[in-house]
Amino acid sequence: MTLPIFDGGRNLANLDVSKACRNIAVADYERTIQGAFREVADALAERRWLTEQVVAQQATLAAQTERARLAWLRYRNGAAPYLEVLDAERDRFTAEQALVQVRRALLSSSVSLYAALGGGAGHKAK
96, 119, 113: which is closest to 49 by C-alpha? Predict the structure, then answer.
């Protein structure tokens, strides 16, 4: 027969260890939650900034497209050399490339946001 009186010291020590483990688990959980909120906030801020960049790059592309159109008209009417047309087309192409890169970054940030919100390869489709 064992009596709990003789195990009192060991039981109190086990209780203290259990409380310490619980406190560590709570702190780890809080740290994880704060990290998740930070990741979501960062992903949302990046997405908002990239959306603004897409709009700005679209305006740049529109301006370069108009410049190329006008350069072509000037060349066709003999008011400008063909080099002006080539420069305008090159700048339009550069603007198109920049727009593609910003759109790619926006799509990539959407994936990052999805992952930060808990989505990912580990989830099965229903």
Answer: 113
CB 64 within 8 A of CB 95: yes
Residue pLDDT, tens place only, 28-86: 999 999 998 998 999 999 999 999 999 999 999 999 999 999 999 999 999 999 999 99
Q: How many Å apart are CA 49 and CA 76, to the nearest integer?
A: 41
pLDDT of residue 119: 79
* pTM of the predicted structure, to 2 decimals: 0.70
Q: Where are the domains of the chain?
A: 8-116
CATH match for 8-116 among 1.10.8, 1.10.3470, 1.20.120, 1.10.760:
1.20.120
Q: Which of 23, 24, 42 is nearest to 34 (CA)?
A: 42
